[in-house]
Design goal:
Strands 3-2-1-4-5-6 form a 6-stranded mixed β-sheet, sandwiched between helices. It has about 270 residues and is of the alpha/beta class. The chain is built from 7 helices and 6 strands.
Length: about 270
Amino acid sequence: MATLGKRAKQRRLKNIVLGTLAFAFVGVVVAGGAYYTLTRPPGLDKASLCPASGPKGHYVLLVDKTDPLTFTQKEAFTVTLRELVERRIPQGYLLSVFVLGEDFKENAKPLVELCNPGTGEDKSELTDNLRRLKKQYQTGFLEPLLKQSESLLASQPAKYSPIFEMMQLVAVNGFRAHDVKGERRLVVMSDMLQNTPQYSMYKGPVDYPSFASSTYGQKAQLEMRGVEVEIHYLMNAPQLQTKRNLKFWEDYFAKAGARIVAVRPLEG
């Protein structure tokens, strides 16, 4: 029986080693793929772009459109809205946008609700399609929200401004409807001057204890426990938008289990 030559033996040994390494490499790839499949985060809901496990936090934006904005207010509103959408809503958080109009029944539901899916900046090209993620953020989240800016602006003054009624609807159809366990924040852009036949802040000094003890005040009570509130004042009537007005709203939200954490006048 013929024996293998030295070179033949070396080739055979080399082939065995290469075959073993190739087999091991395939095993590592398969194992790595299986591990990634088992440990990667679940996908996003196609409609809302929220995590499959639910939103990590919830921001609600309520915009008062019962009075037309001045030119400067429009500019400030646009910048504030873009800042909120582009830089303040964390990835995985839900943003619900409500409109405060003359008829609160017509605005009972959010104008739009979307989660920030992320831009892909925290991902790797090895495991994710970064271009697809960026496009998803741009066309699925950013653009639909910013397109609503015109819908949030009034063309003429409204007869009534039912702020209390809209606060209740925001609590029910916004925060309670989703019951998010993480951070919850209400961002209000309004003059904060209720004006309805039942109660008008244009008729004289406001006093929360008197309001709360009235029949209408009891019906207007709010449940918004654990929510942080920030108010962007539209300074339409500075003579009425005083510290007393702010104190009224501080007491109102405190009674609801919420608290005001930021207040600033919108320019104009």
